[in-house]
């Protein structure tokens, strides 16, 4: 599915740009704890952007599956909620945003379960 390849590529660009910004632009401007949060957000962002690329290629090879598609959308949701909340929390210092982060983590987990079930059904 070209859409997941496009979404993966856009998110890879964003993950690299935001990771570099955190490493070079935020040093000395926010606390070490918030830098660590930013780094965690960028790391998960990059991993799951690669996963979106993988899903796009997987669909192109084995065909579309509602479970794979749902998994992809859940991974994108995880990027937005998990990484996004960490980015915003680091920039604003509003620690209450940390309550959103686990929802994004749950979206990642359920997304991977969907992909695993789809793979098992293909065997």
Chain-wise SSE layout:
Blueprint: H1 2-25, H2 32-62, H3 66-92, H4 101-122
Helix pairs in contact: 1-2, 2-3, 3-4
Pfam families: DUF423 (PF04241)
Subcellular location: Membrane
Main location: membrane
Low-confidence sequence ranges = none
Number of strands: 0
Element-level helix/strand string: HHHH
Strand % is under 5%
User: For the residues shown, what is the average pLDDT?
Assistant: 93
Helix content: over 70%
N/C terminus separation: 21 Å
Counting helices, strands and paired strands, the structural category is mainly alpha
Computed Rg: 15 Å
Gross morphology is: elongated
The domain count comes to 1
Q: For the report, how would you describe the main beta sheet?
A: none
Helical region count?
4
Explain this structure to me?
This protein is an all-alpha fold and 123 residues long. Helices cover 85% and strands 0% of the residues. The chain has one domain. It has 4 helices and no strands. Helix 1 (2-25) runs antiparallel to helix 2 (32-62), helix 2 runs antiparallel to helix 3 (66-92) and helix 3 runs antiparallel to helix 4 (101-122). The model has no long low-confidence stretch (mean pLDDT 93).
Name the descriptors:
mainly alpha, 4 helices, 123 residues
What's the short version?
The chain crosses the membrane at residues 43-60, 72-93, 99-120. The chain has helices spanning 2-25, 32-62, 66-92, 101-122. It is an all-alpha fold and 123 residues long.
